[in-house]
Amino acid sequence: MGFFDRIANLWRGFTSLWLGSLEEGNPEAVYEAAINERIKKHKELKKAVSNIVYLRNKLTEDLHEAERELKEVSAQIPVAVEEDEDDVALVLIAKRDELVNHIASVSEELSAVERQAEEAKAGLLQFKAEIQKLQREKEKKLSEKVNAEARIEIQESLSGLSLDADVKALENVRQSIDKLKAEADIGAELEGDGLDAKLAKIKSKARDAAAQAQLDEMKRQLAARKTASEGAAASVKKTM
To answer: Which of 18, 115, 142, 201 is most buried, by the most CB atoms less than 10 A from its CB?
Structure first.
């Protein structure tokens, strides 16, 4: 089973535990407990990953040291042969073969540990991302909870509120305003039918009649002067 598979199983175990002990009355506490548990597990996994990385680094150092030593031994063997130091040459050859086998073994182990380290680091990053996702989900869900509670409270308030009193009060206000308007209208109508209004109307008509009489008189005088002028002109014409 790979690291990702173990992480997935671990995550499913957490989810099952969380859902099984879900308390609807205090969702924030449930989220906090789930997040804290994941943070704690993340620290444990981080420590385990650090051990894998440490082993990888140690194997890398061991491989480099063995390769350096092999290079030295390989250079010493021809010298021992030239010096006819057969016993030394045999020891060096045996050591060389031992180093070659050791390097092959360490290289194989290092490759496996490197793959495991990379997979573990990726899994650790994924686990951290899941924690951050859960934290964002917590904020979102708690906000949705507050909004839903507010809507429910409003709905309950509206369902238990009788609007009859408000409607009746509004109707009374409307009637009161309409009565005031009617009172103002009847006042204006009474003023129009009163004695003062009639006198004002008669005075206006009298002024209009006097003005009309003056205009008629002015037109009559103008016509008389015009007639007299035309008659005088005709007399002068006959005399000539």
So the answer is: 18
Query: Cα-flanking dihedrals φ and ψ of residue 23, to 5°?
Result: -115, 110
Q: At what angle do helices 27-82 and 86-159 cross, to 10 degrees?
A: 170
Distance CA 121, CA 131 (A): 15
Cβ(38)–Cβ(7) below 8 Å: no
Rounded CA separation 174/61 (Å): 95
Rounded CA separation 116/110 (Å): 10
State the chain's maximal CA–CA distance in angstroms.
186
| Closest by CA position to 75, among listed 60, 59, 95 | 95
- Percentage of the chain modeled with pLDDT above 90: 22
Per DSSP, helices labelled H in 160-194 are: 164-193
Tokens of 199: 């006198």
CA distance 26 to 36: 16
Query: Taking the CB of residue 142, how many other CB atoms lie within 10 A of it?
Result: 13
Any idea which of 46-55, 184-193, 195-204, 209-218 has the lowest mean pLDDT?
184-193
- Identify the DSSP state of 22: -
> Which of helix, strand or coil describes residue 15?
helix
Q: At 108, list the tokens.
A: 């194989």
Structural domains present in the chain: 3-159 (1.10.287)
